[in-house]
Amino acid sequence: MAIEAFAPAKINLTLHVTGQRADGYHLLDSLVMFADVGDTVGLVEGQGLSLRVTGPAAEGVPTGPENSILKAAGFAGQTDLAFSLNKVLPSAAGIGGGTSDAAAALRAISALRGVSLPPDTLPLGADVPVCMLGTAARMRGVGGQVTPVQGLPRLHAVLVNPRISVPTPSVFKALTDKNNPPMLKTLPALKTATDFAAWLSEQRNDLQAPAIAAAPVIADVLGVLRAQTGRLLTRMSGSGATCFALFETEEAARVAALKIQRSHPQWWVAPCQLS
Ligand code: C5P
């Protein structure tokens, strides 16, 4: 039997760093949604563990045991599986690429073999639990406290990565103030994208400033997104370097994506919907 699992881009609409644990991990309060753009993980029975990577972002992606998919397979106690990965998302980009692949691999393994997974997935990545859920959620603790959020409007967005990878640990390390306020109160009812964006504009990504200090091109990406017609909100996702803008309409997002890709052919630009 062949199984396919979609590994969507994970977008941190907000990312508040509210503290740090004694083991160095940071405490977060983050609202996450998922894009309809992402990687695809395929899985069939095999002899030993193997991985074949194809797709527009395949270059440089490891196919050995350091790949998050094979780590996930080992973590789930598997020894004989053949994986394929259609890699679309840029790596180390703040949109969960490797983590979303690992979560998709775990979902595929569970569907193929019916195995139950070890409960503590932190060794595979702090974002694995939210990526396993795959729908809009509030993420707290170091990432393991995931609460689904229902009733949010679908969002039209453009994702832009300047094709630089930003190592997450260095961005967390560069953050000087680690005790910031959490998101404002509980989430109010947000019916339209405009209301939602207005609420989001009062929240933050605390990693944005240290990421820009490490990679100033992120400020250029934000500036280009901010200049687009119909834009509602512009922000960086995760620890960067991918930034997103939300738009009033699908058409506005599509036009903005075309304009940005034309003026910056070297950047990765993806119009998408978030849900
Ligand atoms: O998400 P992932 O586990 O891959 O994170 C990579 C690194 O980012 C961690 O090893 C840690 O240094 C840092 N991190 C953190 N606090 C979190 C998530 C990640 O300090 N909540």
Describe the protein:
This protein is of the alpha+beta class and 275 residues long. It folds into two domains: 3-141, Ribosomal Protein S5, domain 2 (2-Layer Sandwich); 150-274, GHMP kinase, C-terminal domain (Alpha-Beta Plaits), CATH 3.30.70.890. 28% of the residues lie in helices and 29% in strands. The chain is built from eight helices and eleven strands. It has helices at residues 68-75, 97-113, 128-133, 168-174, 193-200, 208-214, 217-226, 250-263, and strands spanning 3-12, 16-20, 26-45, 49-54, 81-86, 137-141, 145-148, 155-161, 231-236, 243-247, 268-274. Strands 1, 2, 3, 4, 5, 6 and 7 form a seven-stranded mixed sheet that branches. Strand 9 (231-236) and strand 10 form a beta hairpin. The chain starts with a strand and ends with a strand. The mean pLDDT is 95. Residues 193-262 form the GHMP kinase C-terminal domain. One of its GO terms (molecular function) is ATP binding. Pathway: Isoprenoid biosynthesis; isopentenyl diphosphate biosynthesis via DXP pathway; isopentenyl diphosphate from 1-deoxy-D-xylulose 5-phosphate: step 3/6. The active site is at 10, 127. Its EC number is 2.7.1.148.
